[in-house]
Q: What sequence folds into this?
């Protein structure tokens, strides 16, 4: 259990004494807090916390911590999750033909920057198979038509479950997922949209941006919900353009944004730094 | 005429030989080009140019240049304007209660950063009068109600005309101008909208941004057209926010953006660096 | 004491149980934590905390809180400060001829964005007196020559002390303060340097930037120490330039950076969000 | 010669009539200008131009254009280069162990974003060989010690010459090149330095940045000259950091900057948009 860390994610109605109880719990059992972040959302009177402590020396065995913490959780009617740094998230990547986001995720995972095991790549095209082979990740193609969509998604879900997938990342996957699929992985599907949402929702955002004549373009990493491009935003970034840029230039400049913004959003999720509440996020970065 | 410069703004259908003719015209009469920018819009096959040259030594008298250039203009069926650096734009500012954009314009004008004479401040409130007094600019209040709007605007137009106003700047002026007013100053009314357009059109964009949970907010400087917040964009900028920011924080952070973005857009206009075409701009900065 | 808040700034050697003790202290006396930030600097094994709680309902009287907290402070050998939201910092501004930073501070203070009383403006020139008059702030000129410097600074210190000055802000003040002056207001003098430190230390940074041919310029807000431009950095920001920009353009673009970066640094200090340790800062924003 | 374009890069002492002569030359032979950029450096009274025109319909054969243009070049004592869009630059990449910049260049080249043929990868380590194999680029290792450096560089130069290398890109290559090597490829060696130059010259810039406590880090793409990290800057960019970031975090965040800034600088060079003059650049982007 050397260097092993526990991470507690909590949200509940805000009232006095929460921090005192939690920090007392950790210090009583000899845990040393490494990071602690909290946020009080005034509008909804909600308290959010992320607290990370070292398990080396902690006197409750790892598999008993949840049980030990439960009394506090019940007292404050908390929504909570307990994570351990040694338990790597199992991540699947969906991709179509653009491969820049896929490469970015695979390369940065291999460089040790993402705490994930990439267990499966799924596509509606054959194109990215050589990439999967190069990185040694299983690759499966599910062709999608209007008629086959639900059937194919069902097979995708079975495959994802067989891989014990925790997180689905849509790395410029050009199909809209069904509500059934979304419900199966609620708050665990991360998408990259190639605009500064809520500007330019839907198809061909770079064409929309070009037509509107904006001076800045963006990319948005968000959780997928039932409404297209309306899910909770994790991360956004932008870059400057000018009248000299053609649509093709916007696409090329945008690709650099997309890959960085998606990977940053995934990284934050993997480090258990994102709370979803309503249609928004609290991101402790 | 020492240090006097001429600036020619041109747009026309793109075809061969335009640059050759214009630069030949200038060099024939002994003008020295200081800046020259051009752009070819492929989608509409339009050629844009801004060319600036020194009149010291130029052998055509200043008041005959237009006449001399006309043959070229006709040959290529150009839309064109000839400006002189010594002729300062007469600018009027409209303001309501927020005064940060007003101050920014007045201070940077006084610091010599804007080539304009600020000839009039108009408001629907008394609040900014002491500011106008401090800077020695005439201040007039026109209260606006639904019933009086057109009448009041008519008086505003008369006042603006009496001041020979070239440019109207809406510095967080909280009234929508009538189509009649807009038509009177087409492409010569600059507004600041406190969002990253086209996101968050209309009222209370910071509240909209807060509700949507975006991670970046913006400001947009644009020409006013008949459709609200849809005019050609001159300049935009953004700043990063987080879940910690309340609506009030967004308002405060946004004010810094608004004043800089508006002033930058106005500065570009005053330096004759903006072409409007359709609903877009070419900005030679 | 309605809406009154207490803010505790703490640093000490990191060990287990600190957060538990502090949060227990606050909750025992019925305080409700509004914000809490902590940081553990691994290199120096130092723990930093900023904790803010509502005094409405807190059962220790305001003037007894320090005394009550002292036992915990001693136990962990803390460096600590207790601040109250109702106690506004008394701020003096030093300025020379450039007035853009001075205006920004005065305007944003008047707009309620800075929790300070501006009690004095000091300059080595007469130029800014009308600004001080307009904002109703006392203005005093102390001419500085090599020979008179220490004497004049002594008079400045007396004036500042008579105003009970807590914070000195150098708003493009073009004199280097003596070590004696610095020692008198250690960690309470904030300067704006017009470069991206540590690039371009010393005089004429925009000229240096122009000569080096950088593509981005910056501004740095820092605490003044005995070594020129070497003090702990609070805030920095940058803007893009190109080969088209002359030194004068850099100066103009830089002014926008300087005023925003300085004001942001001052704001963070006024909200007691900055810890200085060694030559660095922890900024809880 | 369909879609073939000619690009002329010119610099000379500024005097009247240059643009007129060049544009007249192009239009006389029925060339259509696509892009034209010029810049006048007042300090050195130097005129810079980049002009790009379509060869479809141009009445001088491609291999006679240089000869035809020479009279103008001599008249104005120009330094000039004539490039053709069909002639792809032959680029070699030097790399050590960090592979993020190497991957970025290879991937974006394969995506068609860089107009180059990558003809050789050279390293002082074996590590990147599988990457070279995957992309089908020759890979050669030259171990460098103090004693063998000049000999090994000589062999590198021979290999580069056998590949007709036009451009050498140092993609986090951790060896300093000798003056002899630099002289052989003057203004044709592009390096990425992992700091915002001139801050943090030399070794371990992220450690230096961490120690100084800056709030922003950067990366700089520049031509290599005889003085370490002093060459003409092509492109820079920055990203925000905080007290929470360890040196390892700076390294990870910096890697994203490095790969984008290096590739952008290389792209500008490949598109013949960079003029070097003295120790600075004019970049027409």
A:
């Amino acid at each position: 259990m050397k260097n092993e860390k526990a991470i507690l994610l909590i949200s509940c109605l805000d009232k006095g004494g929460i921090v005192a109880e939690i920090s007392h719990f950790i210090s009583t059992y000899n845990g040393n807090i490494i990071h602690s972040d909290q946020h009080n959302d005034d509008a909804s009177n909600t308290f959010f916390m992320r607290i990370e402590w070292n398990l080396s020396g902690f006197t409750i065995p790892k598999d008993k911590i949840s049980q030990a913490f439960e009394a506090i959780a019940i007292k404050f009617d908390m929504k909570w999750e307990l994570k351990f740094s040694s338990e790597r998230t199992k991540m699947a990547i969906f991709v179509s033909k653009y491969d820049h986001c896929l490469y970015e995720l695979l390369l940065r995972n291999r460089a040790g920057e993402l705490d994930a095991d990439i267990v499966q790549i799924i596509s509606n095209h054959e194109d990215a198979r050589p990439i999967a082979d190069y990185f040694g990740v299983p690759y499966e193609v599910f062709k999608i038509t209007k008629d086959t969509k639900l059937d194919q998604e069902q097979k995708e879900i079975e495959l994802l479950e067989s891989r014990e997938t925790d997180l689905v990342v849509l790395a410029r996957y050009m199909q809209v997922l069904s509500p059934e699929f979304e419900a199966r992985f609620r708050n665990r599907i991360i998408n990259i949209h190639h605009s500064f949402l809520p500007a330019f929702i839907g198809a061909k955002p770079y064409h929309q941006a070009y037509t509107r004549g904006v001076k800045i373009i963006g990319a948005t990493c968000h959780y997928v919900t039932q409404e297209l491009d309306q899910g909770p935003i994790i991360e956004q970034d932008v870059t400057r353009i000018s009248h000299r840029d053609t649509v093709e230039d916007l696409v090329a400049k945008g690709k650099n944004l997309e890959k960085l913004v998606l990977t940053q959003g995934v990284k934050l999720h993997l480090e258990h730094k994102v709370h979803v509440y309503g249609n928004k996020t609290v991101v402790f970065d």
In short: Chain A has two domains: 5-84, 89-283. The longest strand of chain A covers residues 32-41.
